[in-house]
Design a protein that fits this description.
By secondary structure, the protein is α+β, with helices and mostly antiparallel strands. Helix content is 42%, strand content 33%. The chain has helices at residues 13-63, 95-99; strands at 71-77, 80-88, 101-114, 117-130.
C-alpha cells in the first residue's frame, strides 16, 4: 500500500466550494460594476445629444437678423423635445431708450425620457438686438 504524502494531497471539497463561492461573488460584483458603468456612459451620451440640440437652438436664434419675436417655440428631434422661450430681459439700465438696443433672454429646455425616467437640460443666454 502506498502512503500519500501531505504535499501530494489535493484540495478538499470544502476548499473548492469556498474558492468557487468567492469567485462567483467577485464575478457578480464585477458584472454589476460593468453594468452601472455602461448605463452611466449611455446616460452621458444622451445628455451630450440634448446639449447639442440646445446649443443648436440657441445658435439658430442668435443668427436670425433682427432677432426673433418674443414668445415660446417648440419642436422635436428624434426622442428629444425642445422648447425655446424668448422674453425681454429686465435690467436696471434702460438700453432701449438710451442706446436703441433691446435685450432678449433666450432659454432652451430639452426633455427626453429613458427607462421611465424624465431628463432635461436647460441653457440660457442673452442677445442684444439693435432697434431700427
Amino acid at each position: 500500500m502506498k502512503h500519500i504524502l501531505a504535499s501530494e494531497r489535493g484540495f478538499t471539497l470544502l476548499e473548492v466550494l469556498v474558492a468557487f463561492s468567492i469567485f462567483t461573488v467577485s464575478v457578480g460584483i464585477l458584472m454589476q460594476i460593468f453594468s452601472k458603468g455602461t448605463h452611466a456612459a449611455m446616460l452621458g451620451d444622451e445628455y451630450t445629444q440634448a446639449i447639442i440640440i440646445a446649443q443648436s437652438r440657441l445658435a439658430t436664434v442668435a443668427i436670425e437678423g433682427d432677432g426673433p419675436d418674443v414668445g415660446e417655440y417648440s419642436g422635436a428631434e428624434n426622442d428629444y423635445r425642445w422648447t425655446t422661450t424668448i422674453r425681454p430681459y429686465d435690467t436696471a439700465a434702460d438700453l432701449e431708450t438710451n442706446y436703441r438696443i433691446a435685450e432678449r433672454e433666450i432659454e432652451v429646455v430639452v426633455n427626453w425620457t429613458r427607462r421611465g425616467k424624465s431628463h432635461s437640460v436647460k441653457l440660457n443666454t442673452l442677445k442684444l438686438i439693435p432697434l431700427t
